[in-house]
Design goal:
This protein is an alpha/beta fold and about 450 residues long. The chain folds into two domains: about 10-65 and about 330-435, Aspartate Aminotransferase, domain 1; about 65-330, Aspartate Aminotransferase, domain 2 (3-Layer(aba) Sandwich), CATH 3.40.640.10. It is about 35% helix and about 15% strand. The protein is globular.
């Protein structure tokens, strides 16, 4: 039976009636109804094409034929849970292991970044037998209750900070407590974690883990200062804790020269646990935790089986393997280097034309533009009025770019042309959160 096609107004009315209102839409005043996609493009019900600049989940491009082919082929043969012996899960784990430091050699497959981070928290606590967690200010690690508790971005709007959660300053060298002019911001920010751990010990408590996104995204597309992670890891391990790198937003080659963003902190740095998610399945729910044999052994020793119904199924792992193949075959890391550098250069030149652009930062295809009303004071530009990009950061004034990795040079140029035009015409009036301006270029609309 053919699926009934609804008019946009009918779809919106049914959504408002049937779907929880806390599940929000992009462009809520006039939502875009997307009915198909390919590569870095989305198409609405009228065939209008939109350039997608934020869908980092569709890592190698929307509806990539190699991914859909791999999924359909495996689904046509077998899709059971991981309690049955099967090649795909071990072949996929082996491929992932080849991208990571040697000691990260044990894998647990789950369905989402939230599940991965929740499991990482369990692993850390089981291994250390400690409870407390250190996180960065403005961090977001997932929607489960355990993760809301360690996500200042969320818990400050809800029940508040738990006594076992300790918040370290965000290492933001643009507007943080230690800035670009500091002689060693990495060490200075790491020392704030050291001081925090000492305060925790004075209270008679012990640290189980330090959790951090390898590049904080919700915090404002932050590029961490060099040597920050290695020094923090030193302090955390000395306190009996473990270092957890959250790669849910940034892994799988988005930063270009490295497969994982934590590798930006040096070839010798290795976390104790790495979580991954969003881009792994190119839209299919697939996530993972990688850790050491020692930590995994402690988790096994508790005597309680870990089982995830849909984690690591043959279909999920076939999709994961196909994603890894496409990253290599289409040189998407190289593309992230080339296109990311071009986009960053164009945005930096745009900064010279528009006083509202306070900072342009990023690496590969992980970029941000911080908007300010006063460059010297770095006053966040929070009063909005129309541009076309999603925002992040404590004041929702950082335009974020995390497009599919197939994003091209011409796409970068179009984005910058449109932002330039909007900032010029609107005289720096910017709309907060998700901006929706129906500006088009050759009948193409941008969804950033």
């Amino acid at each position: 039976m053919a699926q009934e096609k609804l008019r946009k107004e009918e779809t919106l009315a049914m959504r408002n009636r049937l779907i929880g209102q806390s599940c929000r839409l992009f462009y809520s005043e006039d939502p875009v109804k997307i009915v198909r996609a390919r590569g870095q493009y989305l198409f609405d019900e009228n065939g209008k094409r939109y350039l997608d600049c934020i869908s980092n989940v569709q890592h190698v491009g929307h509806c990539h034929p190699a991914i859909t082919k791999a999924a359909a082929a495996q689904m046509d043969v077998l899709n059971t849970n991981s309690r049955f012996l099967h090649d795909n899960i071990v072949l996929y784990a082996d491929r992932l292991a080849a991208t990571l430091p040697q000691k990260l050699c044990v894998f647990y497959f789950v369905n989402s970044g939230s599940e991965a981070n929740d499991l990482a928290l369990r692993l850390a606590r089981q291994y250390t037998q400690h409870e407390d967690v250190v996180v960065l200010d403005h961090a977001y690690h997932g929607h489960l209750m355990s993760l809301i508790d360690i996500s200042p971005y969320k818990f400050r709007k809800l029940a508040g900070q738990k006594e076992w959660v300790h918040v370290a300053p965000l290492p933001d060298t643009y507007r943080g407590i230690y800035r670009e002019d500091h002689p060693d911001p990495g060490q200075a920010y790491a020392d704030t974690v050291k001081d925090l751990i000492e305060d925790v010990h004075k209270k008679g408590r012990k640290i189980s883990a330090f959790f951090a996104e390898s590049l904080p995204s919700v915090g404002g597309q932050i590029i961490l200062p060099q040597e920050y992670f290695p020094k923090v890891a030193e302090y955390v391990r000395s306190a009996g804790g473990v270092f957890v790198a959250d790669e849910v937003q940034t892994g799988f080659g988005r930063v270009g020269h490295h497969f994982w963003a934590f590798q930006l902190q040096g070839d010798d740095f290795c976390p104790d646990i790495v979580t991954m998610g969003k881009p792994m399945g190119n839209g299919h729910p697939l996530a993972c935790v990688a850790t050491t044999a020692e930590i995994a052994g402690a988790f096994t020793a508790n005597g309680v089986e870990y089982f995830n119904t849909f984690g690591g199924t043959p279909v999920s792992c076939a999709i994961g393997l196909a994603v890894l193949d496409v990253i290599v075959e289409e040189d998407l890391r190289g593309n992230a280097v080339r296109v990311g550098a071009h986009l960053k250069d164009l945005l930096t030149k745009l900064k010279a034309r528009h006083e509202i652009i306070g900072d342009v930062r990023g690496v590969g295809l992980f970029l941000g533009i911080e908007l300010v009303t006063d460059r010297e004071k770095k006053t966040p530009a929070t009063e909005a009025d129309q541009i076309c990009v999603s925002t992040d950061g404590p004041w929702e004034n950082v335009l974020k770019f995390k497009p599919p990795m197939c994003f091209g040079m011409e796409n970068a140029e179009l984005v910058v042309q449109c932002i330039d035009r909007i900032l010029t015409v609107l005289q720096f009036n910017i709309y907060t959160k998700t901006f929706n301006v129906n500006f088009t270029n050759n009948n193409r609309k941008i969804h950033v």
